[in-house]
Amino acid sequence: MKFFRELMNDEQGATAIEYGLIAALIAVAAITAMGSLGNQLGNTFNTVSDDMSAD
Residue 23 is inside which H or E element, if any? Predict the structure, then answer.
């Protein structure tokens, strides 16, 4: 019984879950930003390539 009381009062697991959620949120934000940046970069290279082909 003492083990279960100590387990219920232990907050280290909750802290680990919070850090995991924060890391997941940062990863989703980074993936979204990199995807958008990649699309913009691809469009820029295509524009430059088209301009060089037109000459």
Answer: helix 12-54
Q: What is the pLDDT of residues 23-34, one digit of tens each?
A: 999 999 999 999
Which residue has tokens 């980074």? Answer: 30
CA nearest neighbour of 31 among 43, 20, 23: 23
Gap between the Cα atoms of 35 and 14, Å rounded: 32
- In the three-class reduction of DSSP (H, G, I as helix; E, B as strand; rest coil), residue 41 is classed as helix
Instruction: Pull the structure tokens for residue 43.
Output: 């469009």
Read off the pTM: 0.56
